[in-house]
Design goal:
Largest sheet: 11 strands, mixed
Shape: globular
Number of domains: 3
CATH architecture of the largest domain: Alpha-Beta Barrel
Distance between the termini: 40 Å
Structural class: alpha/beta
CATH class of the largest domain: Alpha Beta
Mean pLDDT: 89
Protein name: DUF4350 domain-containing protein
Organism: Tumebacillus flagellatus
CATH superfamily of the largest domain: Glycoside hydrolase/deacetylase
Strand content: 25-35%
Number of strands: 36
Keywords: Signal
Number of helices: 13
Length: about 650
């Protein structure tokens, strides 16, 4: 009887939240609306705006408004608000702070970073008082927190540990010196009612304080940081802001749905090597690296420079361009590139960007395009990475790359060593360029998997070093169930994931907690083709459903802890309820490329839609029979099977035992 009453209570709670959303928006959609507030005439808020514009929280939408317009903003229709520190410049800040306090009391969630905390009364933030840190917070304490706060705490914890590992990551309380993190140490609070996520020097640095029906989050100056450093710092800001949105969803609806930067709910990984020396061609570097990767069920990606550096850099001598009749390895390069294309690899551009003028950049891009044409290499929707570092603000150069037909850049900071990276569309003010940017890393850190982050590894051209990278990548993929693919395939996947709009439609016709996910593809989906099918999500249950489970009707899904990851092609549904760990039938756990799954009883046909490395992982506790030749089969653990093939689109037929 108690269980029935609890179930009725939970259902009523969920239905109430659905009704609130429906009454606000006039349709049965669960929408997490966010607002970024800023001072007129300033631009510092734009990073925070873009972090939510390009968010992975499936049903999040964001708008921005100046503080002067707040009186006309219907705050009750928003669930999240980010306050830019320029609030301190507003002469009406006391009234604005009161409005935001009311917003929180009525169920809103407010993000307050260190630089703006003075605009609010300490007790609103759950503090007895604030104190400045006396020294950089080198050692942070992380108390055990309740389930809904673990995502936020994990970002801070992993960020702090990785920051220590960066070679130039000294912290400074003055902001002076050549450090990566040039933020001041900021303040901490002595908590009264606030829940502490991280502390140092007897002060709480990251906290959440419940106020009425909502909550306010305080973040020390450690993160988000406004330092102009590596992609790692920007990724830290992005993750913290989005985990705050996830926390709000967990508190309000009891679960959160996140898009995953990979295929069918599992993150993507790739590895890249630039071909920029004549010796790379002469020694058969591409063929050797391809053979090495295939030995470990992987696939490399290559970018090709137009003018290759001479074997003697001190004398600044350059070899002839690759499309010059004088280029000594022209015939061998042509054969090698044909081999790569036969293996399903698309060659990208390794760009030399002259620092002189836009006209020089345009000329170099035109020459590179002509060189590719000489070898029969396509340029449409091509990807690129930088042979030379770009200036601190590379917007003009990247705009020229877009105009030349380049769709993505996998290395705008070739000199940076980064631990985290998040792919994003490059922005210029409020304008978003149709250019995806993502930087490679040297080593895969386990924290990437904790946050479902994709990665592209730098693959050395030296065979001995390359083997270490390949083995490391294989261990990471197997340990965390990542999907390996080429960079070209990875960026097409990113474009689908970041550009697709996912809506949550609750089934209000019954007492069951059933949600249908409907997908609107990217506005600019030209050339994506079957890659539009690869969108996947992660459904995480919060404290409200700690004793329940989640199931889905999707063809491809996998469970990890209290979460489920599954593919969403146009439409899929999930159900929250008992039992906590449902008994699943045999099914496809992950696929690294676009597929269509058809099942008739125990017999399954998988149509693989793309070329190159094709890898499928099945959960089949009683085993399976592979009926299509040409696939290697590896038993992965007690109940899973990994099937791998290289080649063009094909059909695979299996039968579950």
């Amino acid at each position: 009887m108690k269980k029935k009453l609890l179930l009725i209570t939970l259902v009523c709670s969920l239905v109430a939240s659905v009704c609130l959303y429906s009454s606000v928006y006039g349709e049965e959609r669960d929408e997490l609306r966010a607002l970024v507030l800023y001072e007129t005439g300033t631009t510092g808020y734009q990073d925070a705006l873009q972090n939510w514009k390009q968010s992975l929280i499936a049903n999040l939408t964001v708008t921005s408004a100046p503080f002067s317009e707040l009186e006309r903003v219907p705050l009750s229709t928003y669930r999240l608000v980010y306050v830019d520190p320029t609030l301190l410049q507003d002469p009406d800040r006391a009234r604005i702070a009161d409005q935001l306090k009311t917003f929180v009391q009525h169920g809103g969630f407010l993000f307050v970073e260190d630089a703006v905390h003075e605009a609010f009364a300490p007790d609103f933030l759950g503090a007895k008082e604030f104190r400045a840190l006396s020294a950089p917070p080198h050692s942070l304490d992380f108390p055990q927190v309740r389930q809904n706060l673990r995502g936020l705490q994990s970002v801070v914890k992993d960020y702090r540990e990785l920051l220590d590992a960066l070679p130039d990551a000294s912290l400074s309380c003055t902001g002076a010196g050549p450090s990566v993190a040039k933020n001041q140490c900021g303040t901490g609070l002595v908590p009264s009612t606030a829940e502490t996520l991280a502390s140092a020097q007897d002060l709480s640095l990251f906290t959440v304080n419940r106020v009425g029906e909502g909550a306010v989050f305080f973040a020390n100056a450690l993160l988000p940081t406004r330092a102009n450093g590596s992609g790692f710092l920007a990724a830290g800001n992005y993750l913290l802001q989005n985990e705050f949105a996830a926390y709000a969803a967990l508190e309000y609806t009891g679960f959160v749905v996140k898009k995953v930067l990979g295929t069918y709910g599992r993150p993507a990984m790739a590895m890249q090597t630039p071909i920029q020396r004549t010796s790379d061609v002469k020694n058969g570097t591409m063929d050797r690296l391809l053979d090495l990767a295939i030995q470990h069920d992987e696939i490399p990606s290559f970018s090709l420079a137009r003018t290759m550096e001479s074997v003697n850099l001190a004398e600044y001598r350059m070899d002839p361009p690759i499309d010059s009749p004088a280029f000594p390895e022209r015939d061998k390069l042509k054969r090698t590139l044909q081999n790569m294309q036969n293996a399903g690899l698309d060659i990208q551009a390794r760009l030399f960007t002259p620092p002189a003028s836009p006209a020089d950049t345009q000329r170099e891009l035109s020459l590179h395009r002509r060189a590719f044409a000489a070898y029969g290499l396509p340029w449409k929707h091509i990807g690129a990475n930088q042979q030379t570092p770009l200036p601190p603000d590379p917007t003009q150069i990247l705009s020229l790359e877009v105009q030349s037909g380049i769709a993505w850049n996998s290395g705008i900071r070739p000199e940076r060593q980064t631990a985290w990276n998040v792919p994003f569309f490059w922005t210029k003010g409020d304008e978003t360029l149709p250019l995806l940017v993502f930087n490679p890393i040297s080593n895969p850190d386990p924290s990437l998997a904790r946050h479902d982050l994709p990665l592209s590894l730098r693959l050395p051209s030296n065979l001995s070093d390359a083997e270490k990278t390949v083995l490391s990548a294989d261990r990471f993929r197997r340990g965390h169930d990542y999907n390996f693919m080429t960079e070209e395939q990875m960026f097409r996947t990113f474009r689908t994931v970041l550009g697709s709009r996912v809506e949550l439609v609750p089934d209000t016709s019954s007492d069951a907690r059933v949600y249908t996910l409907t997908v609107t593809p990217p506005a600019d989906s030209k050339g994506l083709g079957d890659d539009l099918k690869v969108l996947g999500v992660h459904v995480l249950l919060g404290e409200r459903y700690a004793n329940e489970g989640v199931s889905t009707d999707a063809d491809i899904y996998t469970r990890r802890g209290n979460s489920i990851y599954f593919g969403v092609w146009q439409k899929a549904a999930f159900t929250i309820g008992l039992p906590k760990r449902p008994t699943d039938p045999p099914h496809l756990l992950r696929a690294n490329l676009p597929v269509t799954v058809r099942q008739n009883g125990l017999r399954v046909t998988v149509e693989v839609k793309s070329k190159g490395l094709q890898q499928l992982k099945f959960w089949a506790p009683s085993g399976l029979q592979v009926e299509t030749p040409g696939w290697s089969v590896r038993h992965d653990g007690a109940e899973a099977w990994v099937l791998t093939r290289y080649g063009g689109p094909t059909d695979l037929q299996i039968t579950y035992k």
